[in-house]
Design a protein that fits this description.
mainly alpha, globular, about 260 residues, about 75% helix, 12 helices
């Protein structure tokens, strides 16, 4: 890889670290950049876990130690086992899948995530439902299925996990964010080692991107998070990134051209 490509990965990781701190879906950037440098989708998916591990660890360590944070940490313990099991299953599925199938799968998930970003339900504004227990079998299964996806493809796991915690488990967005940071780190750890032992990781580009992600996470948490309309700007940035990435990964111009007989 060229110096310019390493700088591009670092810059993309920096941006992804900021976006993951503010909203999630930063892996839409990192995965796309790794694939655009010429990596097969399965290699890019494995290499992406290096930055994901560093970034999620940094995010958990950086959480403010408040009483509310402690309560959410304790709630997250209920979801640790399904998180680990689901992540392991998802990672093994991703290791064995054909690279071309994985590329189209990633492109399809980008389209789904694009629709989630364009949709803004009122349920996201509700406070945590304290009248019911969140430690239910249904919520356990929902987190397990989310973890399978997280082990399979890291991309978009933050928004998907937030959706489950807010819309299914009925946490407030703020409380769900705390649990999300804990669980995403748990998702990453077993998947990281499975991909490592698979031999698909590319360490040098992975570290270049991971360095950017770590710095981006710190910058996002300490500074950009408090800028006016920061989430609004990031949301629209993600819409653009997901749209372009989906078009490229799904080879939409070629599909349209073949259909039109060009």
């Amino acid at each position: 890889m060229s110096v310019a490509e390493y700088l591009m990965l670092f810059g993309g990781g920096l941006l992804a670290g900021v976006i993951n701190t503010l909203a999630g879906n930063g892996s839409a950037i990192t995965l796309s950049l790794l694939i655009f440098t010429g990596m097969p989708a399965n290699v890019a998916n494995a290499t992406n876990r290096i930055g994901a591990l560093l970034q999620t660890f940094t995010a958990v360590v950086s959480l403010r130690r408040t009483k509310r944070t402690g309560l959410m940490f304790r709630d997250s313990f209920w979801f640790i086992i399904p998180s680990i099991l689901g992540s392991i299953i998802g990672a093994f599925l991703a290791v064995d899948i054909d690279p071309d199938v994985l590329q189209y799968t990633i492109g399809g998930f980008m389209v789904i995530l694009l629709f989630t970003l364009l949709n803004k339900p009122k349920k996201w504004l509700k406070a945590t439902n304290v009248s019911k227990s969140h430690k239910t079998t249904f919520n356990w299964i929902a987190i397990f299925l989310t973890a399978v996806y997280g082990g399979f493809i890291q991309m978009g796991i933050g928004i998907i996990l937030l959706s489950v915690l807010v819309l299914v488990a009925e946490y407030s967005l703020r409380d769900a964010n705390i649990i999300k940071l804990v669980l995403t780190f748990i998702f990453v750890v077993p998947a990281f080692f499975i991909f490592w032992f698979s031999g698909d990781m590319r360490w040098e580009p992975g570290f270049a991107m991971a360095l950017g992600q770590g710095i981006g996470a710190v910058v996002g948490a300490r500074y950009i998070l408090y800028m006016p309309k920061a989430n609004l700007y990031v949301r629209w940035l993600l819409i653009v990134i997901l749209s372009v990435s989906a078009v490229v990964l799904l080879n939409i111009p070629q599909v349209v051209g073949n259909f039109a007989g060009w």
